[in-house]
Amino acid sequence: MATGPLEGIKIIDLTRMAPGPFCTMMLGDMGASVVKVEAPPSSRISSSGKAPEEEIARISAWNPLNRNKRSIILDLKMEEARRAFYEICKESDVVVEGFRPGVVDRLGCDYETINRINESIVYCSISGYGQTGPYRNLVGHDINYIAIGGALGIIGSSDGTPAIPYNIIADFAAGGMHAAFSIVAALVSRSSTGKGQSIDISMSDGVSYLLADSTGQYFRDGTVAQPGIMTLNGGVPYYNVFRCLDGKYISIGCIETWFWENLCKAIGLGTFGEVQFDKDKYEDIFHAMRSRFATRTREEWWIELSSLEDIAVAPVLDISEVETDPHVKQRNMVVDAGIFGEEVVRQIGIGPKFSKTPGSIRSLGRIPGEDTFDVLSESGISKSDIEKLFQSGAAH
Questions:
Q1: N or C: which end of the chain has fewer CB within 10 A?
Q2: What is the rounded average pLDDT for all residues in the chain?
Q3: Is 141 known to be catalytic?
């Protein structure tokens, strides 16, 4: 039985920060063979009473971004390490890197170099602002990329103050998921052309790409989405969150008129059912709904409203509550991924559900360098040459 739709695809992962590891986690979950090429170890200070090696091993095992991957250590600043890296590239399908533009050129691991070794390679570069443009060399993080890409400007309160979301939009969606999709698309293209290609993933580009609908409205009629005043970012009572008696929140997504009418009847505010789009009534509606939802706990409201037909409502869960939610559990989005020592390692499950070639978690994250010898040996490098790489410090 196949281990996933990408079984047989070999991926080299040169990335460090969130977008790249998430990208290769997705590909590994779908059956691809992923080899992480990590930097040589530096001095590590343990934050607990455990030995640093044990602590590092445990952290790696519990980190889902490391699962389904083998780990090797090569010092790519050394020529002999680069030669070993080239040998691995000869039989690989994909290289993913997340350095600043120009770094791989200095390391001798750029697309042009690897393409000469293997013209079928798909080479994906993930960076904040891309490989071209006036911002290409700027440093940054998720908050900067969503600022340039346009997302931060529409998330926040009606007074115009932007709210800082967690690093999901740029790092994981516009970076990692965008890259994974692009890599698979390039592999499909390669199946007919036999040729690989380079992919330039800019997280700020990806953020703007995610705003296709909003930008479409702007280009059509000049509507600029503003924080806290639009239909989908807090400007209306029928698509909002409300605080309950226990301090927890419930989300309302009753855009459709019948959803809204059903909600108003269910919570005893039926008089507002016919004035859903009357902005002059919004202040009164907001006040009434805030007062009403504050009379009962979130769970009480959720139990009642979810039992009724055609009311778009859901509790606002934190991560600890997501873990125990019955729907999340039934969908296998929280799973026991393996055993580390005597601990059962729990991780997030696999999002896409394939009927014939489902993804799988085949291994937990490895100790950095745990697979160096095996991977180099599989690439055709002799045992004696591998030993020389270890002795010189080019490999660990």
A1: N
A2: 95
A3: yes
